[in-house]
Amino acid sequence: MDGNLKVQIPQDEGLEKSLSLLSEGYLFIQNRCKRLQTDIFQTRLFAQNVICMTGKEAAEIFYDNDKFERKRALPKRVQKTLTGEKGVQGLDGHEHQHRKHMFMSLMSDERLKDIVDLTKKQWEIAIVKWQTVDQVVLFDEVQEMLCRISCQWAGVPLREDEVKQRADDLGKMVDGFGAVGPRHWQGKGARKRSEQWIEEIVEKIRSGEFNPPKETAAYTIAWHQELNGQLLETNIAAVELLNILRPIVAIATYIVFGAHALHEHPEYVEKLQHGEGQFVQQFVQEIRRFYPFTPFVGARVRHDFTWKQHPFNRETLVLLDIYGMNHDPRIWEQPDVFNPERFNDWKRGNFDFIPQGGGDRDRGHRCAGEWLTINVMEASLNYLANQIDYELPVQDLSINLSRIPTLPTSRFVISKVSRRAR
Ligand code: HEM
Fold it and tell me: How many angstroms separate the CA atoms of 279 and 264, rounded?
């Protein structure tokens, strides 16, 4: 066979598909892969040609730093809400590795233990409070809880009367990235306010007015030196410190999905209560697999290359379907069934289970906070399954897959909370 033979990438016929993305949400890539019977297709999104891919082999190529880069990969609307500008997500090569090393230095075992201790403390305080009210919206309460936890852990001062607004802003930055109109504008406003808040803190640290402990993110980021020996520009330091605070608050989404799973699958509550073996870990992994959070990740082609005879042209934007891979029947038996036991004998791979990105964490863009997320989820699930009793008033628990990001519609309301008698 001719080794240079090129086969055109299957086409998603038609004009700009951004409106379809808005209406199909998490299923946008999967729907087309099924229809075209392919793992790869080309479409028009964000006013440009875009290649969408799914599957383990696609993930392997996507995380090859020689083939893809992140420069200009994030749409402006995502930078204006979710990530901020000039942060680690858009860096490549040595610059990226140097910045990523700074993030990973914050994730030592001791520091992960610190955040678990803070998490337990906040749950204890919350339970006392929740017992005095008729009902609480779990998502909103957990966001506030995680806002306190993230700031304490990261060395960012936070007055109690600020918690509501800061938690709301950190949440809105995530909520606004996949939307157009008011939800997006709210996300932009929230980012502006949050960056201003953190810039002032960075300035106070640098002027000596405020001295957070050395091991914290606030200290590390404020004094981080770039490869050229310079401190980060104040705004970039704020973007990076928010790259710690914002995603910690976002763990609220997974915790609420955990509560949803406990409600839908009472058969697992007892197993969690008895703390059988590694079951809590398996349960948490299955939440990260089964429920929708990250829809896809994007990168740009670094140099022209050919993969499976398909031409990849320099600078083309490529999206890897994270949600689709979590539900890929070639990777997961009965992917649409919630079954934590599937992780019983699961062999860890860098490209098959990638709810928070894949590949090598230190050299690539895989999530810096994956272990932190798992630790905070495990501690929180223990409270939901073992430490409290509560009821669910009538509410809409449906999860709308066309909304990115999504949640149970009611945000999970619980009532009659009481501490379980031992
Ligand atoms: C709440 C659950 C979380 C989800 C669903 C999530 C998801 C992701 C995803 C999909 C990526 C991009 C992977 C890629 O581009 O290939 C990422 C990157 C990142 N995440 Fe997370 N994440 C979460 C929690 C966290 C936490 C708790 C932290 C820090 C405390 C964190 C810090 C980061 C950073 C710094 C990056 C950029 C890494 C890089 O570009 O090298 N994330 N995350």
Answer: 17
Q: Which among 43, 78, 13 has a CA at the least distance from the CA of 239? A: 78
- What average pLDDT does the segment 81-104 reach? 97
Helical spans, DSSP H, in 208-351? 217-222, 234-264, 267-273, 279-290, 322-326
Alpha-carbon distance 300 to 109, whole Å?
A: 34
- DSSP string of 67-82? TEE-TTTS-HHHIIII
Q: How far apart are CA 300 and CA 302, in angstroms?
A: 6
Mean of pLDDT over the chain: 96
Widest CA span in the chain:
74
Per residue in 249-278, pLDDT (tens digit) is 999 999 999 999 999 999 999 889 877 668
Regarding the beta carbon of 257 and ligand 1, being less than 6 Å apart is answered no
205: tokens are 């640290």
| pLDDT tens digit sequence for 290-310 | 999 999 999 999 999 999 999
Q: Whose CA is nearest to atom 25 of ligand 1?
A: 369
Contact 201, 210 (CB under 8 A): yes
- β-pairing, 317-321 vs 48-53, is parallel
Is the bond preceding 405 in cis, omega lying within 30 degrees of 0?
yes
| pTM (2 d.p.) | 0.97
Q: Is 361 in the pocket of ligand 1 (CB under 6 A)?
A: no
User: What one-character DSSP code corresponds to residue 88?
Assistant: G
